[in-house]
Amino acid sequence: MFNDFLQSYTAFEISGVKNSLFETLRLFDLLSSGALRRANLSLLDEEKIDLHGLIRKRKQGIPWEYILGQAYFMGHLFLCSPDTLIPRDKTKLLVDAALDSIQKRERVDNNLTLIDIGTGCGNIAITVAMHSRYTKILASDISHAAVSVAQNNICRLNLQHRIALFWGDLFAPFQSLGYEGEIDFVVCSPPYMPTGALSNPSSEVPIHEPHVALDGGPFGIDFYRRLINESLPMLKPDGMLLFEIGERQEKPVIRMLEKNGGYYDIEFFADNATVRAISAVKKKN
Fold first, then answer.
1. pLDDT at residue 187, as a whole number
2. Helix runs in the chain, H state only
3. Distance (Å, whole) CA 262 – CA 114
4. pLDDT digits (tens, 9 = 90+) for 16-43
5. What letter would DSSP give residue 35?
6. Residue 129 near residue 76 (C-beta atoms within 8 A)
7. What's the chain's Rg over C-alpha atoms?
8. In this structure, how many other beta carbons lie within 10 angstroms of the beta carbon of residue 242?
9. CA pair distance 101, 240, nearest whole angstrom
10. Nearest 5°: phi and psi at 111?
11. Helix-strand-coil percent breakdown of the chain, rounded to 5?
12. Listed residue (102, 75, 108, 73) closest to 189, CA to CA
C-alpha cells in the first residue's frame, strides 16, 4: 500500500497537480471507503503525545514502529520494541501457508501442536492462534526481552490458554519437556541477512532492529542448516517444517533439505515470482 501511495504521489507531482499530497490522500481515502477520514488521530494532540519528540526521533532514522511502540501485522496491532523485529508484510505468505495446512489437519485432528521459533513480538504465534481452533502453540526466542514483549501481546489478546512462551536457543527449551517426535508443525521466520549487509545496510530499519534476529552468517543461510537438522527429531512423521527465506536463497536451502534426507514434499511459496517461504514434510521412515 505504501508503495502504491508513493507512486501515486509521484505521478501527481510529475503531472503538476496542485496540492499533490492532499490529492493523494483524498484518492486513497475514497478507494478505502473513507478509512483515512475515520482514523483516530486524537493521540497527536500534543497534550497526549510529544509530537516534537516524535519528529526528532524520526529525523534520527528510528522507525515509526519503534517510536510508537506498536506495529500492524495481518490486520492486528502488536506491541513491539527495539528488542524485536518489526513484523514484515511479506511474512504473511508464511503464515497463510501454515494456516492452510493447519486448518486442513484440524478437520481430522483436534490435538495439533506447533512450535514458533524466534517468536519476536509473537506476531506469528498469535496470528496462528487467532485463526485456528485447536492447535496448541509453543513459542520461543533467544532474547529474554523479546519473550517479555511477546508475553505482553499474548496477555493483551487473552491468548494465554493457547500459547506457551519459552526462552532459549532454537529447540533447547523443549527438548527436556517430552516434545521430541510430538510436534505437528514448526514455523520460523529466521535470520537470513548476510552479515556484510548488516554492517553496511541500505535500509534504515536493520540499523535499529536486533542483529541476532537478522544475522544469517556470511551468506545469510547459516540458520537454515540448524533449523532443518534440528527440526527433524522434534517433528512427528508427516510433521511439517515451514520457514521464511531471503531473496534467491531457495537453491541452497533445497540442497540442505536434500542433503538432510529426512524430508519430502518440498513446496515453494512465492510473491510476484520471488520465493518467500518453503515447506517440507518429515518422512515416515
1. 98
2. 2-14, 20-31, 35-38, 51-59, 64-68, 91-106, 123-130, 144-156, 195-199, 205-208, 222-231, 250-260
3. 19
4. 877 777 777 777 777 777 777 766 666 5
5. H
6. no
7. 21
8. 24
9. 9
10. -135, 50
11. 40, 20, 40
12. 73
Residue 99: which residues within 8 A CB-CB, separation 6 or more? 127, 128, 131, 132
For 29, the grid coordinates are 481515502
Closest to 236 in 3D by CA, of 181, 177, 187, 176: 181
Within 13 A of 144's CA, how many CA atoms are on the CB side?
0
Grid cell listed for 240: 511439517
Rounded-to-integer distance, Cα 185 and Cα 241, Å: 6
Amino acid at position 227, single letter: L
The residues near 284 (Cβ < 8 Å, ≥ 6 apart) are 237, 238
d(CA 145, CA 267): 34
**Residue 188 β-bridge partners:** 117, 243
H-run or E-run covering 87 = none
- Phi–psi pair at 181, nearest 5 degrees: 75, 10
* Main-chain dihedrals φ then ψ at residue 98, nearest 5 degrees: -65, -45
Name all domains of the chain by residue range, CATH numbers in brackets: 2-64 (no CATH), 91-282 (3.40.50.150)
* 170-214 residue pLDDT tens: 999 998 899 999 999 999 999 988 888 887 656 556 778 888 888
- How many other CB atoms are found less than 10 A from the CB of residue 248? 10
Cα angle 275, 169, 76 (rounded to 5 degrees) comes to 55
